[in-house]
Amino acid sequence: GIESDEEIRHLDEEIKELNESNLKIEADMMKLQTQITSMESNLKTIEEENKLIEQNNESLLKELAGLSQALISSLADIQLPQMGPISEQNFEAYVNTLTDMYSNLERDYSPECKALLESIKQAVKGIHV
After folding, report:
1. Domain boundaries, the chain
2. Torsion of CA 55, 59, 65, 66, to 10 degrees
3. Whole-angstrom distance, CA of residue 76 vs CA of residue 2
C-alpha cells in the first residue's frame, strides 16, 4: 500500500502541474487571440484607408489628365524654340521647358522669347484649377 500511496501522490502532483500548465497555456492563447483580433482590425482599417487613397489617386489622375488636355489645347498654337507644337507625346518635355523658362525669368531672353512667354501666360490664364 505504501508504494500505491506514493504513486498516487506523485500522480496528483503531476495532475496539478498539468492543470497549472494548461491554465497558463489557455491564458497565453487568450492573449494571442486578442492580439490576432487587434491585428485583423488594424489590417481592415489599413485596407479601407488604402482603398480611399486609391480612389483619391484615381480622381487626381483624372483631374490631371483634364488639366493636361486643357493646357495642350491652350498652348496648341504656341511653339517653343527648338520644339514642335505641344502634344501628348512631348507634353512632359514641353512643360519642363516652360518650367525652366519661368524659373529663369531673370535671364535675358530675346524679344521674341519674351513675347512668347507673355503669349503663354495669356493662354494659360483661362485654365481653372
Report:
1. 1-124
2. 160
3. 108
Q: Which amino acid is at 123?
A: A
Are 129 and 67 spatial neighbours (Cβ–Cβ below 8 Å)?
Answer: yes
What helix, strand, coil percent values describe the chain, rounded to 5?
Answer: 80, 0, 20
Q: For residue 79, what is its C-alpha cell?
A: 511653339
* Cα distance between residue 116 and residue 110, in whole Å: 10
Query: What crossing angle do the helices spanning 2-74 and 91-103 adopt, rounded to 10°?
Result: 80
Instruction: Give residue-wise pLDDT tens across range 47-99.
Output: 999 999 999 999 999 999 998 888 888 888 777 777 778 888 888 888 888 88
40: helix, strand or coil? helix
pLDDT grade for 128, boundaries at 50, 70 and 90: low
Tens of pLDDT, residue by residue over 15-50, are: 999 999 999 999 999 999 999 999 999 999 999 999
